Amino acid sequence: MAAERGVAAEALVGQVVLPGDLLLLPAHYSEDAEGERLRLSAGAAPQARLLCGPGLRRSGAGLLVTKCGLLRHRPAGGGAYWVDSQQKRYVPVKGDHVIGIVTIKAGDVFRLDVGGSEPASLSYLAFEGATKRNRPNVQVGDLVYGQFVVANKDMEPEMVCIDSSGKSSGMGVIGQDGFLFKVSLGLIRKLLAPKCEIIQELSQLYPFELVLGMNGRIWVKAKTIQQTLIIVNILEACEYMTAEQRKQALAKLSGN
């Protein structure tokens, strides 16, 4: 009966979906060991996986919508479906790169506020080149850019600042200068998209450093405080501006 009430997922891509909507998949699938990945058994390569992203969960014949937003689809690989919303509350996800604020130094472990329901832990050995004698210089209040290696509802989130080869790859303690602010998770995903027009347009305005966290936090630093605040204001406003309005605002600023 549930399958009869469902709608094909492809037909709703780019449209608003509501909690409780059932999306039917284009092919039969079987559950993967990871739980949130669906193995396609028809019309796809044997190793293909259909990823069930944020705002969706498995339900019998397809995917059940759990939050309101626009349905998105990425066909690359096995494909992926997710709901793009203006959510601001962050739920830690394994593999996400986030910006955390060090709140406690407890022995060999740091506790970081990552915007979730509980703090994340970060070992002092989870930095490039760190040893028992060569400890990283991390203080309470520092900003740390890292990646989740453990994130589920039954365990405390755990972060690291190194990749699989032991290199920092841009992760670690962020400089003391700069400005940290928070935006919606939907805007972060838009800014992280390849060849994002917003980032390209801003880079033509002023040179600046930018760190984007999947938890909705952005750290930015330009040459002067005034330029930094201008970039912050544009990034905060671009969520509610059209492309034409954004271009007009940037053209006005570049003219000055």
UniProtKB/TrEMBL annotation:
The entry's keywords: Acetylation, Cytoplasm, Exosome, Isopeptide bond, Nucleus, RNA-binding, rRNA processing, Ubl conjugation
Primary location recorded for the protein, binned into one broad class: cytoplasm
Protein's cellular compartments: Cytoplasm; Nucleus, Nucleolus
SUPFAM superfamilies assigned to the protein according to its UniProt record, in alphabetical order: Eukaryotic type KH-domain (KH-domain type I) (SSF54791), Nucleic acid-binding proteins (SSF50249), Ribosomal L27 protein-like (SSF110324)
A GO BP annotation: CUT catabolic process
Gene3D superfamilies registered for this protein in UniProt: 2.40.50.100, K Homology domain, type 1 (3.30.1370.10), Nucleic acid-binding proteins (2.40.50.140)
Gene Ontology molecular function: RNA binding
Domain named Exosome complex component RRP40 N-terminal: residues: 15-86
Domain named K Homology: residues: 178-225
One of the record's GO cellular component terms: nucleolus
Oligomeric and partner information: Component of the RNA exosome core complex (Exo-9), composed of EXOSC1, EXOSC2, EXOSC3, EXOSC4, EXOSC5, EXOSC6, EXOSC7, EXOSC8 and EXOSC9; within the complex interacts with EXOSC5 and EXOSC9. The catalytically inactive RNA exosome core complex (Exo-9) associates with the catalytic subunit EXOSC10/RRP6. Exo-9 may associate with DIS3 to form the nucleolar exosome complex, or DIS3L to form the cytoplasmic exosome complex. Exo-9 is formed by a hexameric base ring consisting of the heterodimers EXOSC4-EXOSC9, EXOSC5-EXOSC8 and EXOSC6-EXOSC7, and a cap ring consisting of EXOSC1, EXOSC2 and EXOSC3.
Stated family: Belongs to the RRP40 family.
Cross-referenced PANTHER family: EXOSOME COMPLEX COMPONENT RRP40, PNAS-3 RELATED
Name the record gives this protein: Exosome complex component RRP40
